[in-house]
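Journal club prep, shared notes

We agreed each person brings one worked example of a sequence with its structure written out as tokens. Mine is Plant heme peroxidase family profile domain-containing protein. I'm keeping it raw so we can talk through how to read the token line rather than staring at a rendered picture. Sequence first:
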Amino acid sequence: MKMIASATLAVIGLLVVTTAAAAPTPLPSNINDTDRVFSPDLYQASCPQLPGIVRSAVRATLRRDVQITAGLLRIFFHACLPQLGAERKRVY
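Then the structure, token by token:
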């Protein structure tokens, strides 16, 4: 039971970190909202330590419970693939 509680807390923690990382940053007034493109370095200026924070949290969680990997993959693909599909519709 303790293992399940620990895994649940780890997943909740990772969700909080990824949600905070996905929150939009304020745009300068000279940039149109439609011009914003998500990229791996989107938060480089506002939070340069973010990749290290996320990486260490994920590694620590995987060391405690390797079964969390499946949940992380589900979260990643659930969040990213619909955005990719929406982006394709705009291009065509």
